[in-house]
Every structure is written in C-alpha cells, then in structure tokens.
Amino acid sequence: MSTTSSNASNNGQSWQDRLEELCQTTSIPSPSFQIVSDRRGGRTAWSSQVVVNGQSIAARFWYDGKNLNNAKEDAAEVALNYLLTTGLSYQAPLHAQKSW
C-alpha cells in the first residue's frame, strides 16, 4: 500500500491543516472527513472522504487500520489540489439554496 506523507510542505504543516486554512481564508465551511472501510478477504482496508465546498472527494488509496491519519491526509491533499486547480467559489449547500 502506498503512504502519503503527513508533512505537506517544508514548514511541516499537514494537508489537513492546509485545507482547513484555505477554507478559513476563503470563507468556505470547514471540511468534514469520513472514514470508510472495505472488507477484503480476512482484512479490512480503510480510506477517507472529505466533503468540502459542496463536493465529496475521496482519497486515492486504501490503508491498514493503523494508518487512518494517512487516509485523511490523502483525502485532504486531493481536496486541496482540487480547490486550487478548479478555482474557489463558495457553493451554498443544496438545502440552503432557494429555488423559485
């Protein structure tokens, strides 16, 4: 299994911290992480998803249970890169949008 470094940059800040910081500075609601599992034979593989700016973004890889933080770091890295490459625009949750 692949691992994602817990340090995202030279200053030692984690991907989760960088994502949270970006959300704060752009007035996007804080990201919400979910842990997901998949039974594979006699073992369980674990991954993560993060909901940010109205999008559910999955981690790229599956991990052993002892590496759950790596799964969250992976999802945070994917989400941060997604937000930075697609441009930042706040999307109100569907239940908060008015339809006429």
UniProtKB/TrEMBL annotation:
Bias-annotated ranges (Polar residues): 1-16
Signal peptide extent: none
Residue stretches in coiled coil: none
Segments of this protein annotated with the region Disordered: 1-20
Keywords linked to the UniProt accession: RNA-binding
GO molecular function, one term: RNA binding
UniProt cross-references to Pfam families, sorted A to Z: dsrm
UniProt domain DRBM: residue ranges: 14-85
Protein name: DRBM domain-containing protein
Species of origin: Ceratocystis fimbriata CBS 114723
